[in-house]
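Thought: the user asked what Sodium-independent anion transporter looks like in 3D. I have the sequence; next I should run the structure tool and report back without guessing.
Action: structure_tool
Action Input:
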Amino acid sequence: MKEDLLPKTVSVFQEGYDLARLKADALAGLTVAIVALPLSMAIAIASGVTPDRGLYTAIVGGFLVSALGGSRHQIGGPAGAFIVLVAATVSRHGIDGLLLATAMAGLMLIAAGLLRLGDYIKFIPYPVTIGFTAGIAVIIFASQIGELLGLTFPEGEPGPLIDKIPAIVSALPGFSPPAAVVAGLTIAIILIIRRFRPTWPGLLIAVITASIAASMLSLPVSTIGTKFGGIPSGLSMPSLPHLSPALAIAVLPDAIAFALLGAIESLLSAVVADGMTGRRHRSSMELVAQGLANIGSAVFGGICVTGTIARTATNVRAGATSPVSGMLHALFLLAFMLVAAPLAAYIPLASLAGVLAVVSWNMVERSAISALIRSSRAETLVLAVTFLLVIFRDLTEGIVVGVSLAALQFIHHMAKGLKVTNQEDERPLENIDAGTVIYRLDGAFFFGAVASASAVLDRIADGHRNLVLDCSGIQLLDTSGANLLAGVIRKARRDGVKVYVVSDRPEVRLLLSHHDLHAQDIVFTRTLSEAQWAIQGNSL
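Observation:
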C-alpha cells in the first residue's frame, strides 16, 4: 500500500505503542466523548432528525474516521456545518433520502481520495472558508431562536432565513419565559466555566445542570422525552439505505453537497491538528476514511460524518498521541448510551439550543474577519459575497461563487505581475549591433497575461536582423502563452528576422515545440551569453 493511502493507525503501531500512550489516549478520548455527547444530540435535533441519530453518527462514524483516517488526532462525528444541508434533505426526501445521500457522498469521498484530490480541495481560499463558516453560524443560530425562546410555529418553522425572520416575529407573542431561562442558564454556565475553569467539560455540565433545574422546578419546557420519547440504549441494527433509481437521482445534488462540504471540513480540521502538533496528515487516506465513515453511519441510521475542528482541537489539548483516542471516544459514547440513555429524556431542548447558540458564536472567526477587512478590500469582497450567498441562497453556491471570484482576482493579480521590457536601452549584450533587439519576459506568462503581453510584443519593429526573447525570467508558461510566443516567432521569420529564445527550462522548449516551429525558425540558448555567441556567427 502506498504511504498516502496508509491509515495513521498502522503507522502508529509500527512505531510502537505502549501502555503510557494508551493511558494518555484514553484520557483524551474520555474528554472528547464528554464534549461530543450533548453536542451530537443537539446537532441531530437541529438537523431535523432524532437525537439518537447524532449519537450513531459520532459512535460509528467517529470510530471509522479515527481507525482508518490519515490524521493522528482527527475526531469525526456530526458537525454544525451540515445542519442546514441535512435539514433541507430531510424536508425534501425524508430519512430514506438522507441515508441514501449520506452513503452516496461516502462513495464520492472514497473516489476523491483514491484519485488523490485531497490536495486540490485544500486550495479553497481562506476568505471563502471564513465566509461560508460565518454564514453557516448565522443560519444555525437563526434555526435555534425558536427553541431558545420557546416559540411555536403553527405551520412549521420555515427553512430559508429570509422566510424564518417574519415567522419568528409572528410567533413572538407565544414567547416562553421558562424556555428562555433554561437556555440562558445553559449559555451562562458554559461561558463561566470557559472563563474560570477552561479544562472542565462546560457543555456537559451546563446541560446536566439545566436538566436538573428544569426537572426539580417542574418547568413547562419541551424535553427530548416529550418530543422524541427518549433515546434507545444502544446502536440500531445495521441495514442498507433504501435504494431506487428515482430516489438516487433526486438526492444526487444533496450527496454532492455533503461530499464537498465533508471534504473541506475534514481536511481543514486535519490541517488545524497539524498546526497544533507539528505532524502531517495524509489527505488522500483521510478522504477515503471519511467516505467509509459516511457509509458506515448511513448503514447504522446516522447522518453525515466529517472531521470536527473543535473536537479535534480538544483531543489534541487533552494529550492524545494517536488515533486510538478517537476510537476510544466512540466507545465511551457507546458506553454512555448503554448506561445513561433513560436520563437523556430529561434534557430540555432549550438547553441543547443554548449549546448550539454558543457553538454558532464560536464558529464566527471574528479576528480573521477583522484582519481580512483591514488588509485587503479584494479578499473582503470574496468573504462578503460568500457569506451573503450562504445565508440567502445556498451553501454550495456560496462556495462555488466565492472560489470563482477569488480565482478571478488571482488571475488578475498574476497577469499584472508579467513584465515585457525592451532591453535596447540597457544593452545587456556587448558588441551587438543595432540590428539586434532584445525583449525580456518576467513573471507568469499564462492565459490571463496574454492580452497585455501581446500589446507589447506585437509592436516589435521591422528591420531588425535578430530578435532575442529572454525567457529566463518566466516563472510559468502555459499553452496560451506559448501560442503567443510562437505567433511572434512566425511573424519574425516571415520578415526574415532570426529568433533566439533564452531559457534553461525544458518546459519552455517543449511547449514551443508543439506549435509546428521548425529548427530553422528558432535558436534555443540557455543564457544571454550563449545567444551573443550564436549571433556573432559561432555554433553552439
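Thought: the tool returned a structure. Summarizing for the user.
Final Answer: Structure for Sodium-independent anion transporter predicted. The beta strands are 76-77, 306-307, 419-422, 436-445, 466-477, 498-502, 523-525. The first strand starts at residue 76 and ends at 77.
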